[in-house]
Write a structure and sequence with these properties.
By secondary structure, the chain is mainly beta. It has one domain (about 1-45): YfgJ-like (Rubredoxin-like), CATH 2.10.290. The chain is built from no helices and five strands. The protein has strands at about 1-5, 15, 20-25, 30, 40. The protein is globular. The chain binds zinc ion. InterPro entries: DUF1407/YfgJ-like_sf, YfgJ-like.
């Protein structure tokens, strides 16, 4: 699963704190609330340029 910013469609950074997940857009430099996060199935997106994150 990939999470995208609803404003700029950039991949979000997922921060896990105290069992909660926060989604941060480095582009907009803001938190994105869970309800606004755009979810993408991994199979639906093409590999991002620059290489895949392995984890
Ligand atoms: Zn953004």
């Amino acid at each position: 699963m990939t999470y995208l910013c609803p404003d700029c469609q950039q991949p979000l950074e997922v921060l896990v704190a105290c069992g909660c997940r926060d989604y941060v857009c480095n582009q907009c430099q803001q938190l994105v609330s869970k309800g606004r996060v755009v979810h993408l199935e991994a199979e639906l997106i093409e590999p991002l340029k620059g290489g895949a994150q392995t984890r």
